[in-house]
Every structure is written in C-alpha cells, then in structure tokens.
Design a protein that fits this description.
Rossmann fold; seven-stranded parallel β-sheet; 30 strands; alpha/beta; six-stranded parallel β-sheet
Length: 948
C-alpha cells in the first residue's frame, strides 16, 4: 500500500521526514485505522507501530476541524512519554498542532496551562487520566476526544492498572456521550499477545474491534547455549567471586558483545544485571557496557540510553525496563541470560533487535542448569512456532471498584447508583460484577466516610443516589496509583555489623522466618532475627539450602512451557530406550529444537541419570521421597507450571499440616517439594486421592488468610481502599485485629482475589486434579530421590559467588570484635572507663582504686553504672536492679579470675557471664579462643527468638 491513501500534505511531510516505503505493519494497519473502527495492532518493536497509528490519525485530524483535546495517547511509562514527545514534537511543528505531556511529574504550572490552553494531542499515563477526569476545566476538553491510542497494551492489561484504565475509558466515553459528541476511535498497540480477542475487548469495552496481527513480518533467529567452563574460567572464577560455570557464561556474554555492534543483554532481575555488568568490566575494562533497570535514577537511565543510541556505549545489561518501545537506536543482537520464563517475554525482548522492516531479530539464550536448559529450549521452540501462552488478564478488583465509584461521584454530584453500576459494568474486567458486590463496595465507602449513599426517597421505585463527601477528594487523589508502596528491610550482618542490602516486604512475608537461608549479592545468608525495619543475618555455608532473594521477582512459567519440557523428557527417554545412541539423540535435538551441542548434551545426560528409568513428563507425575537431615523430603514431580504447582502444593500442605503439624513447601514449574518432620509418602498420596476438585478453593479461602503473605496483601488493599493510612505503622497483633474486623468485606475479599490472580491458578489446579481422577494424568511413587527430583531440592539461581570460606567469616568477625567498645565499671568504687577491645591493658584493674572486681557493660549503659553506685552507697534497689547487679557482679568475678580474656569474651555479641565462663573453661587461646567466642555468638543469634 503506497502513502497515497493519505492526503497530499501528509505525503509531503512523510517525504520530508525521510520515510521510505511503508513497512508491513504500516501497510496492514493504516487502512484499518482510516476506516474509523477500533483497532488492536500487534507488531514487533521497532517496525513503526506508532507511526502506523499516528499518521492516519493526523491525516483524519487535518481533514476536519477539531476542538482540543482531540487525540489522547496513553502510555504505561513516563520514559515512553519522554521518547514519544520527541517524535511527536516534529509532527506538531510540521502539521501545526499543539502537543503536551501529562504525568505524575508534570508541574502545577503546566497543569494549569493545559486546562486553560489545552493541546490538540495529549500524552498521558493511565494514572494521569484519572486526575483529569475529575478536573473541572479539563473535563470539558476531554469531551472533545476523537481518538484514543493505548500503547504497550500487553503491559497494562496484566495488572490492576489495566482494570483501572478500562473503567476510566468507560467514564471518558460516558463524558463524551453526555456532551453529544461521537464515540472516540480506540487503537491499541501491542508487541506480543496470546489472547488478542480478550485484550481487544479489555480496552474497548467489548465493542467491535479489528485485530491486525503483523507479528509475522520479521524473521526470528535464536539458539540456546550452555557454555562449559574451560581452564581460564577456573582461574577467573575466584577473582570475580563466581563459580566456574557462571564465569563461563559471563565469558560468553563478553565474547558476543565484542563480536556484535550493539547488544542488549536481558536478565530476569535487577541484581543479576548489576552483578553481570560489573563482572563484564572485570573481564575487559575497555568494554563499553552500562546497566539499565528501574531502580536506577532517571538521569542514569537517560544517560545510558543516549550513550547506547550514539554508539558510545556498546552494550546495555538490562531488565524488563527496556522491553518496551523506548527509542535507543538500532540494536544488532539480543542476549537473554537464563530462561525468560515465558514465550511472550522472549518475543518482546528478541523483537528489539533487527530494527528494520526486513531485519532479522537475532539472539541467544545463555542457559544454566538442566531445568534451565530444557525450559529455554521449550520457550525458544514455541517462540519460533509463534505459539504464545494465553494472556493473563486482570479481572475485577474490588479496591479499584471503590476508587472508580468515588471518581464517578466526583464527576457528578448526585449520580444514581444504578447508572454508576452500568458504567462500570461496561468495562471488560467488571462484566461479571454483581449488584450485591457493587452495593457492598458503596456501603463500605459510606462507612469509611468517602461517600454518601442517599436512599431517603419515598417515591416508588426508589432511586438511590451516590454523593461525594469532603473526604472523597483526598481519598481519590491519594489512591490513583494501583502500584503498592514498597517497604524494604535492611539486611545487616551480625558478624561485621555491615549493611548488606535490602529485601522487600513480600519476600519477608513469604520467607522471613528465622533460620531461613537466602541469597543476596552473591552470598548465602541465614536469617537470625526479623526486627521492625531490619533483618539480622549471618553468613551460611552451602547454597543448596538457600532461596534466591529475587525469587519473588520471577514471573511464573506457564503450563504450556512446563508441558513441553515434559514432552521433551519423554521424547529423549523413548529414543534412548529404543536403542538410539547419545550422539543420535543429540543430533535429533539439534535438528528439532534451537539448541547447540552443549545444551543437547545436558538434556541427554539429565535423562540418562534417572536411575528409575521412569521419567516425570507431561502426563506422568512421579512422587519421590528421601530423608535429609531428619526431614522427610517428598518431591512431587509435576510438569504443570509455576502457578498450578503452587496452588496444588499449598492445598496439599494445608491438608497434611492438620495431621502432622507444620509442613514446609517449595515449588517450581516442575515440582512440588514438601518437607515433613513426620508423615510418610503414603500420606501425601492419600491426601491427593482424598482431595476433591471442588474443595480446592474452599480450602484456600480458609487457610490463606492465616498466612503472612495474605496479611502483606491485605495492607496494600486496605491502603488503596482508604481503610489504613499509607503512612500508618502498626504491629502484627494490631494488623490481625484489623483483618478480623474486615472479614467478609470487599477489602478482605480483594486481598484474597489479588493472591489468586497473581500467585495461584485455581482453575488450572482443578483441571489437573480432575485429570488425575479421570486417569488422564497418572501418579506413581518411587523410593529415594532421582536426578530430576534432586534438582528440586537445589534451588535455581542466576548469579552466585563462591561460598564465603570459614577463614573469611572468621576474619570479618575478628576485625569487628577487636574494634568493639566495652565499658568497665568498678564494683568497689563505681568509677568506669571505656576501651576498644584491641587496646585493653594486659592487667585489668580499676584505674582509681586498683580493685580487680571490674564488671563489663555496654559503652552507653548508664543505667548499669547508676545501679552499681546505688549498691555501693547501700541505696534500695528494685527487683530488676538486683537482677542486673547480679549479672555485673558475675562478670566482675570472671574478670577477677581470668583478667583480659574475660573482657574479650564478654565483648562478644550476646555473650553473657555464663557463656563467657564456658569459653574460658576451654583450653584454646589465640584464634582458637576467638573461634569459641564466634560459636557462642552464633548460638545466641539462633536461639534468641525462643527466649521469653
């Protein structure tokens, strides 16, 4: 299709802009948009989706007179606004229209100017639209909108932002209709969508929408690699605090970055991006590589983007922050570090390379362990086949509902309840909203003082009206963002008192129990104590018992990927059982899957190591079990994806805990791991057999509210609903009382709904259980742990340093202990002095009276000094005073008998007179003596939580 379908003026400006022939997406998309109907346009990043939409809209705008604001462009990120603004400004100057940007950082002055002198085209975020809808002056201008463009639709509809936006669009359409104007044309732009019809309905309210899918216009070339360590990697690994296996992967990334002109290296987490970027600079100090992720400052991100676009930066190590269509110039190659976990993620990331209409998107997945190799191969195969997992679209959310009801009341002073209900029900996520749920939300808003439900009419039929109140404005504007406020806990090493990093509240809710091991910044740590705003930890040996601190960030692996992994396992097993040689199987894998020889070798080796000859696959669940350190580990090998396994695992664990007490649970896309102190594998099988599909949700409804994860979610929902202030601070006991008082309300139900939407898949678990009952999925038991079963006991992690050796732990402890301050108080005369441990005199005596009965206290413990002096002067002491004096006297007795060594022992964290006496009875001195103090510190840290 030539540009001639557009007006002569547009053609002239297109030529001036330097555009050549239309791209495939422009050829297919522009005629549909020019028809005036709603359109969902799907195309890879960089093929001109934005111009495919804006050029025909500009053309239609030129042909008729339109009042401002006539074009609304909605993007999910402020950074996209910045990028769009640069491109649109050129067109605005050439076509003589005004364009402006509105988001959370827009100044009050700019907002005032937009209300007084509105632009023809406004770029906005979903949240900014919420504020404009209730603006007195801006509302009048919004009623002129003729075209609405929603960019990066796939990013929006997967969260509560999508629910909020879908209702806002219905409110906007209602406003336009009330002013007698025609309904606007809606165009959605997206990269990869697995359920285009549902997504189209999501943004248009189920109106007629044309779907234009141009995902086929660019080729895709991808291969999965698993670099093997070479001699240099074993030499390099200790220098960069990584295993040789990870060093090999980083070396391969370094090699690819040097071979290509411009590279994006995607990681799944911010921590991995930071670690890999820093290690690459160690490999080659001349390599021009920068890091890009959402936790970095705006200025740093912009600098990295501009450096990459200009060619000063050769490569960016990034997270999903660069999945979206931010213009950073031409990209030659994509590296995905470890499995992207979803087909849509891989396609979005790979689509960033080959930014020409005929360019080939080219990239590589650098995989790690056997699970990762299988998973990466499955995702790459599905991507090449164009088989994208169904999109998970966020359904109705009751906290968003409450916010939107309030918004409608702000728009119209007295809005009939029935009319508000119908407007919201037109939004796709609320298509199944019942009048009872709507009424419950209204009544809770009235109880909270956000709304007045006016039902005082005596006429028949009764017309119930919703009226805003004074607090409505404050509540509405405080809760325009559906993104929860993130609370972080500082992680402190008790050995060195050093700040290590931070963990978010969700990780603490899930895994924050004392004794739990986790990995952060390349080191394994054990939680000793969780305090108000910090976590006390100690280094731990052996990463196999540790959870990656970023596990909460990982997106779930869908069922279709896990099922293909099972099919691949069965395929390899069948070939080996049929007598095929390893070489023949590897060749088959390379011919049918996008993997290299190293990955094929890992896959074949994994299946050969299965001692039982039975392979857990897409239709066979194998339950294995073996005791490890007194705990019965039961592994349910289940290739049904992250969410189904998590759902079924929680229900089984809940059922077993009633009989056997606490049951540990760990899941991944291919396993459910149960850890039981009592109970046997037969009990697990019985639980599965007894469980009825229709009981899954009722069990979760009963047990989930008792979890810390639910409590954490409840807080965020309650804040968005106005029940709890966003800056409120409260303890767990008070929180439990609030939860109990709101049981059964929309807030309580929404906290559960949020968990079910994001963390679980109840319908999928019900389907799996039905398949088991019908014999379509077989369940069998094998004794011991197979190779694949053991992989479930060892957690997957992205970047891991070598374990910190005992000698390093001791060095850090010794340095801290010797720098510790202690205060010595004489129990004879009461005088006191403070020392640093390494500066203690050889002989410990009171400097004033020369007595040896000198007690050891903390440097700032003035209360203990007062108690000693009260005792010396024979003043009355309280019971608490007497207990404290006894401890000081015991320490003084130790100092009198053991001298300087007693003070050193008592300087240890949590080491009291009894523990110090045990240490001093042991024969060792020097470093052996200090090691004894370290062991007592660790014993104190582990047991402190049990003390009352």
């Amino acid at each position: 299709m030539p540009w001639s379908v557009l007006s002569q003026k547009m053609q002239e400006k297109i030529a001036k802009r330097g555009f050549g022939s239309p791209t495939g997406v422009q050829k297919e998309g522009m005629p549909q948009i020019l028809s005036g109907e709603n359109v969902l346009l799907m195309a890879p990043t960089g093929l001109g989706k934005t111009e495919s939409t804006l050029l025909p809209i500009f053309d239609m705008w030129l042909r008729n007179e339109h009042k401002p604001i006539s074009i609304l462009y909605i993007t999910p990120m402020k950074s996209l606004n910045r990028d769009l603004q640069k491109r649109i400004i050129w067109w605005s100057k050439e076509l003589e229209f005004d364009a402006s940007v509105r988001h959370g950082d827009t100044t009050q002055y700019e907002r005032g100017m937009q209300a007084e002198n509105p632009p023809d085209l406004l770029i906005s975020t979903p949240e900014a639209l919420q504020s404009m809808l209730v603006g007195k002056k801006l509302r009048a201008h919004l009623s002129n909108i003729r075209w609405i463009v929603i960019d990066e639709v796939h990013e929006i509809v997967a969260s509560k932002r999508g629910v909020q936006l879908s209702v806002a669009l219905e409110r906007l359409k209602e406003l336009i209709k009330s002013r007698g104007n025609p309904q606007p044309q809606i165009v959605g732009l997206s990269a990869t969508i697995g359920s285009p019809k549902d997504v189209a309905a999501y943004i248009t309210g189920d109106e007629k929408t044309k779907i234009v899918d141009t995902m086929h216009v660019r080729g895709l070339k991808i291969v999965v690699e698993a670099p093997k360590p070479v001699d240099d990697d074993y030499k390099t690994a200790p220098q960069i605090f990584m295993t040789p296996q990870t060093a090999a992967r980083v070396r391969r990334i370094d090699q690819l970055m040097k071979e290509k002109e411009s590279v994006l290296a995607f990681t799944n987490t911010r921590e991995s991006a930071e670690v890999i970027s820093s290690r690459l600079k160690v490999f080659d100090s001349q390599l021009k590589v920068e890091t890009h992720h959402s936790s970095l400052s705006k200025d740093f991100r912009i600098k990295a983007e501009e450096g990459f676009k200009s060619g000063e930066v050769r490569a960016l190590v990034c997270t999903s922050s660069l999945e979206l269509g931010i213009d950073i110039g031409s990209i030659d190659f994509i590296i995905q570090f470890m499995s992207p976990r979803q087909v849509s993620k891989l396609l979005q990331r790979m689509g960033r390379s080959g930014h020409t209409a005929t360019g080939m998107s080219e990239g590589v997945i650098i995989s790690s362990d056997p699970d990762d190799c299988f998973e990466s191969a499955a995702i790459a195969k599905l991507a090449l086949s164009g088989k994208i997992e169904p999109s998970r679209l966020y359904s109705q959310s009751l906290d968003v509902l409450m916010h939107q009801i309030t918004g409608l009341a702000l728009e119209e002073y007295k809005i009939p309840l029935e009319r508000a209900y119908e407007i919201i029900r037109r939004a796709w996520p609320f298509r199944g909203l019942t009048i009872d749920d709507f009424n419950a939300a209204c009544m809770l808003l009235q109880k909270l003082g956000m709304l007045w439900v006016d039902d005082r009419y005596s006429e028949k039929p009764v017309v119930i009206e919703l009226r805003r109140r004074k607090r409505s404005w404050e509540y509405y504007f405080e809760n325009m963002s559906t993104i929860p406020d993130s609370r972080n806990f500082k992680v402190l090493d008790v050995l060195s008192n050093q700040f290590i990093g931070t963990l978010d509240a969700e990780f603490i809710a899930l895994h924050g129990s004392p004794g739990t091991g986790f990995i952060v910044k390349g080191q394994a740590w054990r939680i000793l104590e969780v305090l108000r705003d910090r976590i006390m930890v100690e280094p731990m040996k052996g990463v196999e018992a540790a959870i990656p601190a970023w596990v909460g960030e990982l997106i779930p692996v869908p069922k279709n990927v896990a099922q293909l992994v099972g099919m691949m396992r069965r395929e390899i097993s069948s070939m080996l059982l049929d007598g095929k040689t390893e070489k023949e199987v590897k060749q088959h894998l390379k011919g049918n899957y996008p993997v290299n020889t190293d990955v094929a070798a890992v896959m074949v080796s994994t299946i050969k190591k299965q001692e039982y000859g039975r392979i857990p696959d897409e239709s066979n669940i194998i339950i294995e079990h073996a005791p490890i350190e007194g705990i019965n580990n039961i592994v349910i090998n289940s290739c049904f994806g992250s969410l189904i396994n998590e759902t079924l695992g929680r229900v089984i664990a809940d059922m077993l805990s009633i009989r056997f007490g606490s049951v540990g649970l760990q899941t991944d896309p291919y396993r459910i791991v149960l850890k039981m102190q009592s109970g046997k594998v037969d009990d697990v099988v019985s639980a599965i057999n007894e469980l009825k599909p229709e009981h899954i949700k009722s069990i979760l409804d009963t047990t989930m509210p008792n979890t810390e994860l639910f409590q954490w979610r409840f807080v965020h929902v309650a804040q968005r609903a106005g029940v709890i202030s966003r800056n409120a601070d409260f303890g767990k006991f008070y929180l439990r009382k609030i939860i109990e008082s709101y049981k059964g309300t929309p807030v309580f139900r929404e906290a559960l709904h949020e968990l079910y939407e994001e963390k679980l898949d109840i319908s999928g678990a019900v389907g799996l259980l039905k398949a088991i009952k019908e014999g379509k999925v077989k369940v069998s038991v094998a004794h011991g742990l197979s190779h694949i079963g053991k992989l479930g006991i060892l957690p997957r992690y992205e970047v891991m340093a070598q374990e910190k050796p005992d000698i390093e732990i001791f060095r850090i402890f010794k340095e801290r202990l010797l720098k510790t301050k202690v205060r010595l108080v004489c129990t004879n005369c009461g005088s006191a002095v403070t020392y640093i441990v390494e500066d203690l005199p050889k002989e410990i005596r009171c400097l004033s009276c020369k007595a040896k009965l000198v007690g050891v206290i903390y440097p700032d413990d003035m209360d203990s000094e007062i108690i000693v002096n009260k005792s010396i002067k024979e003043k009355p002491l309280t019971k608490d005073d007497e207990e404290q004096l006894e401890k000081i006297s015991d320490s003084a007795a130790l100092v009198a008998s053991a001298g300087r060594d007693a003070v050193v022992a008592l300087a240890g964290r949590g080491v009291g007179p009894r523990a110090a006496a045990r240490i001093l009875r042991r024969p060792g001195r020097g470093d052996e003596f200090l090691s004894d103090i370290l062991r007592e510190e660790q014993l104190y840290s582990r047991n402190k939580r049990f003390w009352r």
